[in-house]
Write a structure and sequence with these properties.
The longest helix is centred in the first third of the chain and has 22 residues. The relative contact order is 0.20. Strands 1-12-2-6-5 form a five-stranded mixed beta sheet. A three-stranded antiparallel beta sheet has the order 7-11-10, covered by helices on one side. The chain has a single domain, classed as Alpha-Beta Complex (Ribosomal Protein L22, Chain A). It is globular and about 50 Å long. The chain is 31% helix and 27% strand. By secondary structure, the chain is an alpha+beta fold. β3 and β4 form a beta hairpin.
């Protein structure tokens, strides 16, 4: 399940039995972007400078500044003091602190997910009405996912496509393998029993029972999901709307 909360409710406290996901609006004035840019370390600022187009650069700065603010809140440190390293598969992780996190951003929006103990992945996509949903699904989805998408009302196929896509992306990001994992090698379809996504690994060498994938209610024009390898532990997913601190205004 997911519950909408306010940042003040948790005071930067993350219980072992919860996963927290924060949603941020990335539309902001230049002076706010400048403040967020100052939070980034040298490596992030260098990456930002490589963007040739202003829009993607601003989105990178805003989303990574947002991530630092969220992590700083949970780690109880200055956002500038947050330090990252790359794990074996290239996934960013914290150098210090018993916290797992993941970031995703799309046009004008970002989400950051965190848990204490387990691999976590999150994805958000803005719905694009010109998407050839069935054509893409038949190319990249498993047979079960294609059948599920085909069963949806015509008016719901594009939003449903993005819902399934973000669930698959969240799982791959949690694994740390990205698109090196064959998209058709596993299935994620809605589970009527508990309103999350049911994962089935088509390669018997992998176990799907250790994973939970939840859809995220991010608004009518967005679809998102969070995946956690939480084994038999029951988790509550708490979803909150990020409120930008005055210091970044």
């Amino acid at each position: 399940m997911s519950v909408l909360v306010d940042l003040t409710d948790c005071q930067g406290v993350l219980p072992d039995t919860e996963a927290h996901v924060w949603q941020a609006d990335l539309g902001m004035p230049p002076n706010q972007l400048d403040s967020l840019y100052e939070l980034l370390d040298q490596e992030e600022q260098t990456r930002a400078s490589r963007f040739r187009v202003r829009g993607p650069r601003d989105e990178f700065v805003a989303s990574h500044g947002f991530l630092r603010l969220v992590l700083g809140k949970y780690l109880h440190v200055d956002p500038r003091a947050v330090r990252f390293q790359l794990a074996e598969k290239g996934k960013p992780e914290l150098i210090d602190g018993n916290l797992r996190f993941n970031l995703s951003h799309t046009q004008g929006a970002a989400v950051a997910a965190m848990v204490r103990k387990w691999p976590v992945g999150v994805d958000v996509e803005r719905i694009r009405e010109d998407t050839e949903a069935m054509e893409l699904a038949e190319r990249f989805f498993s047979a079960a996912e294609v059948d599920w998408l085909r069963s949806q009302p015509t008016s719901e196929r594009i939003p449903s496509f993005f819902a399934c896509w973000t669930a698959k992306e969240a799982y791959m990001k949690a694994c740390g393998t990205g698109l090196s994992t064959p998209l058709a090698g596993f299935s994620v379809t809605p589970s009527a029993a508990n309103k999350n996504w049911q994962l089935k690994i088509l390669d018997a060498a992998h176990c799907a029972e250790n994973w939970s994938i939840w859809p995220l209610d991010l608004g009518a024009s967005l679809r998102g999901a969070v995946a956690v390898q939480n084994g038999e532990t029951e988790l509550m997913v708490r979803l909150g709307k990020w409120r930008w601190p005055r210091t970044t205004m």
